[in-house]
């Protein structure tokens, strides 16, 4: 039989007293380190000062934290998460004790999602017809090995701010089918020419977006054109991502899948989309929305590949943080 180790033996009264004495000695030593007298200045009334005891990471620990390789996180179509944090409250490796504790909370911001391709803007009937023809040529070249072609789709209209006021007509239609081109059509001025209507109703071109059925209903109501077929990104996300189904917005889904922020400044979003000509900022906003819809569809479809199960789990872990 194995002998019982020392730590399992009963403690005698003498040993217990020795432990208590050692504890009192250690406690007194700590108190002496926290408070000490300044004998160098006899005229100083504040002879007893409290010494601040703080903790800081060693330099090797900080370097190790900042040197995490991006190879540790790999996802198809999903970027590594990076945050823009206001670092003005940090002092070297230590935290400033003078900074109020209730202001420590930081709002971590993702880098903005940007469309880096060419924006084709059209506002007259002739320009919209030309843009649609160009779009069809691009898609036909890419569509050779596909049964269906995916188009990110979105619309914009001038908001109303009075109760009971009739909703304005759809003013802008944006369509994106790749990373290189996005078509922004100012349909409040041009209407929807037959060639564009043919594209919108063509079953070989799937229009994707968040709550895209609402956009299709509005186009039908405003212009009498049936946009089909449709695929909603929120439903597609709930089919492909584990966890409780949720009602995704385009912005929240962009953050979850790409670690990018889809910027929605009210000055642009609630601006006058019926203006005679769209500003550069409005064009970028409209193009980015359509591009985001197309890009997120491609990311979600990549998760359906059995080899990408790990990627789905990594996105799920990101959502829970």
TrEMBL record:
Q: What is its main location?
A: nucleus
State where the protein is found: Nucleus
- Provide a GO CC annotation, any one: nucleus
Keyword Plastid among record annotations: no
What is the top-level taxon of the source organism? Eukaryota
Has keyword Signal?
Answer: no
All copies of domain 3'-5' exonuclease, residue ranges: 123-305
InterPro entries, A to Z: 3'-5'_exonuclease_dom, 3-5_Exonuclease_domain, RNaseH-like_sf, RNaseH_sf
Give UniProt keywords alphabetically. Exonuclease, Hydrolase, Magnesium, Metal-binding, Nuclease, Nucleus
Q: Which GO terms describe its molecular function?
A: 3'-5' exonuclease activity; metal ion binding; nucleic acid binding
Question: Matching Pfam families, A to Z?
Answer: DNA_pol_A_exo1
Q: GO biological process annotations for this chain's record?
A: nucleobase-containing compound metabolic process
Name recorded for this polypeptide: 3'-5' exonuclease
Organism (species) = Kingdonia uniflora
């Amino acid at each position: 039989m194995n002998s019982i180790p020392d730590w399992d033996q009963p403690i005698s009264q003498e040993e217990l007293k020795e432990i208590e004495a050692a504890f009192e000695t250690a406690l007194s030593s700590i108190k002496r380190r926290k408070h000490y007298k300044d004998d160098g200045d006899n005229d100083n009334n504040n002879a007893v000062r409290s010494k601040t005891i703080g903790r800081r990471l060693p330099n090797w620990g900080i370097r190790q934290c900042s040197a995490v390789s991006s190879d540790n996180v790999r996802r198809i179509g999903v970027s590594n998460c990076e945050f823009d944090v206001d670092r003005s409250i940090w002092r070297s490796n230590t935290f400033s004790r003078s900074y109020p504790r209730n202001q420590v909370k930081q709002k971590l911001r993702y880098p903005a999602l940007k469309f880096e391709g060419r924006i084709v803007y059209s506002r007259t009937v002739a320009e919209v017809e030309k843009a649609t023809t160009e779009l069809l040529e691009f898609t036909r070249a890419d569509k050779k090995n596909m049964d269906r072609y995916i188009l990110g789709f979105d619309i914009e209209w001038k908001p109303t701010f009075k109760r009971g006021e009739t909703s304005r007509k759809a003013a802008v239609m944006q369509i994106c089918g790749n990373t290189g081109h996005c078509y922004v059509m100012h349909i409040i001025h041009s209407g929807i020419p037959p060639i564009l209507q043919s594209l919108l109703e063509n079953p070989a071109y799937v229009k994707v977006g968040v709550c895209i059925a609402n956009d299709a209903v509005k186009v039908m109501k405003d212009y009498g054109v049936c946009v089909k077929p449709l695929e909603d990104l929120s439903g597609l996300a709930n089919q492909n991502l584990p966890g409780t189904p949720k009602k995704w917005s385009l912005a929240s889904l962009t953050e979850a899948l790409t670690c990018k922020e889809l910027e929605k400044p009210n000055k642009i979003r609630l601006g006058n989309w019926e203006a005679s000509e769209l500003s550069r900022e409005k064009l970028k906003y409209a193009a980015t929305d359509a591009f985001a819809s197309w890009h997120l569809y491609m990311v979600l479809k990549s998760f359906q590949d059995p080899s990408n199960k790990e990627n789905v789990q990594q996105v799920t872990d990101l959502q829970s943080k």
